[in-house]
Design a protein that fits this description.
By secondary structure, this protein is α/β, with parallel strands linked by helices. Helices cover 37% and strands 19% of the residues.
């Protein structure tokens, strides 16, 4: 028996009447499987549709009794006649199967929407702290998690980082807090969440091809604040985040908390004489402030660049909203270490520093990396996802010693450099094979780098035109740098993973 859209919308709670619900799951990556596994546990009737599938994952579907199809997807979708569609984040709103659902009035959720509705499986129910932003969200998520864990709470990072959120809400050990990183894709398919506290770190043009434009992208980011209960954390230096807070419908009593690199006002976190301070979560915030840590301590932990300091402030605001003490925050920051491919120094030799920021997959992230170094030999290029890079080039030519352009579509970058820096040495890496790209890029960079320069891989673009992902791109860069500098003869080098 089919369910009406209103019946589906009313489903909330692990013990609701999920059994027999007809669900199409779109996609069979990590997220898609977590959805299918959860729905199987609930007793739904489901069909997983994906154009490709990892054989081991497909075998697991067979084990849990879930049907899976990879061909003639639109006909199979129509024949199944679902009551609900759960879309993996990669399925854009214009995908034919998503359009088929919305055109027929069938509800379309994401995995996070489903998880929010099912969050009471393990009691007591964990609070959610939600984090989004064009850049910095993974680091901020991990920092927030570390700060809360230091206080002794049971906490896990999940969502767009760590484990799928559906796996987190089904973990039988239970948690006090889920720190949920949310991409704009996940937010697009999310409507019911009421986070304990939420943060949008920054908003810059990204994924415009997926969302269909700037307004839709920004609207998706703004969903993180909807129905927030305690704190909406926003960036004092990003007017869009402030506007999104102002436009959000929140629970009465929820506070707007700003963070930034300047002097903080009451209800803000910021910097005073190279000291990170809290003027938001103390009784006498009009006249006093609490010291959190210092810039010097952050530099010792590899967090001393401006965008990393901002991430620490945002994480501290979220942790403080949950009642975490400044001593625990300071300890967590002191012991924290960045993941690979985030402004990671690979080696230093003859006064030239080689830095991997392959995680800079859009212009905003690349700008944050570029702001940390001067002069720079910049390795840039890849898939730009509909974003114009002209302004990024124009803004940074004064700091550049040279540029090395990678990627299969190099023309827009080369033309931008020609317009704004016709005298700048600009090299194109025309290598057709992935294995050749980074060795050639490193060799060309070394040909122009001087004592005191930084060779910076900050592509400002996605990686899938030539690499498996940003990590593969960064690993290959690190290996090429290691080989070029002579391995153990480097003045300084980090441990380098093998290239697969």
């Amino acid at each position: 028996m089919s369910r009406s859209p209103s019946d589906v919308a009313a489903l909330s709670g692990w013990t609701a009447e999920w059994a027999g619900l007809r669900v199409v799951v779109l996609g069979l990556g990590v997220t898609g499987f977590s959805v299918a596994d959860t729905l199987a546990e609930l007793g739904t009737e489901q069909l997983v549709l994906s154009s490709t599938a990892d054989p081991e994952t497909a075998d697991l579907l067979d084990v849990i009794g879930v049907r899976h199809e990879t061909t003639d997807l639109e006909r199979r979708f129509a024949d199944f006649a679902p009551d609900l569609v759960v879309a993996s984040p990669g399925f854009r709103p214009t995908h034919p199967l998503v359009r088929a659902a919305t055109g027929a009035g069938i509800p379309v959720w994401g995995d996070v929407e489903l998880a929010w509705r099912l969050r009471d499986k393990v009691r007591p129910v964990a609070e959610w702290i939600a984090i989004t932003g064009t850049n910095g969200k993974t680091t901020t998520t991990m920092l927030t998690t570390a700060m809360i864990a230091e206080s002794g709470h049971r906490v896990i990072a999940c969502g767009n980082v760590g484990v799928p959120v559906l796996d987190a809400i089904r973990d039988p050990t239970g948690f006090d807090v889920l720190v949920v990183e949310l991409s704009s894709f996940q937010l697009h398919y999310l409507d019911s969440m009421s986070a304990f506290s939420a943060a949008c770190l920054n908003v810059a043009d990204d994924h415009l091809d997926w969302h269909g434009g700037v307004d839709a992208y920004r609207a998706a980011k703004g969903k993180v604040y909807e129905n927030a209960k305690v704190a909406c954390v926003y960036n004092l230096e990003d007017e869009t985040t402030r506007t999104l807070v102002e436009q959000a419908d929140v629970v009465e009593g929820c506070r707007a908390i700003g963070f930034g690199l300047g002097l903080p006002g009451p209800s803000d976190l910021g910097l005073v004489d190279e000291i990170l301070v809290d003027r938001a979560f103390l009784a006498d915030r009009q006249r006093a402030a609490l010291e959190i840590t210092t810039v010097a301590e952050l530099e010792a932990a590899g967090l001393g660049s401006p965008h990393m300091i901002a991430n620490v402030l945002a994480a501290a605001a979220l942790a403080r909203s949950f009642g975490i003490g400044v001593d625990d925050i300071r300890t967590a920051v002191r012991d924290f270490r960045l993941d690979h491919h985030r402004t990671e120094t690979i080696g230093v030799k003859d006064g030239v520093r080689w830095v991997d920021d392959s995680k800079a997959t859009n212009p905003h992230a690349a700008q944050a990396a570029l702001d940390s170094f001067d002069p720079v030999v910049w390795i840039v290029g890849g898939l730009f996802k509909g974003v114009d890079v002209d302004d990024l080039v124009k803004r940074n030519v004064a700091r550049l010693r040279g540029a090395v352009v990678i990627g299969t579509d190099r023309k827009p970058l080369v033309e931008a450099f020609t317009r704004h820096a016709p005298e700048l040495p600009v090299f194109e890496v025309a290598a057709a094979e992935t294995e050749q790209v980074m060795p050639v890029a490193v060799r060309l960079s070394a040909s122009v780098a001087l004592d005191g320069d930084t060779v910076l891989l900050a592509p400002a673009a996605a990686s899938m035109d030539q690499f498996t992902d940003y990590a593969d791109r960064g690993d290959r860069f690190a290996r090429a740098v290691h080989d070029h500098l002579g391995g153990a003869e480097n003045d300084q080098h980090s441990a380098l993973p093998p290239v697969p």
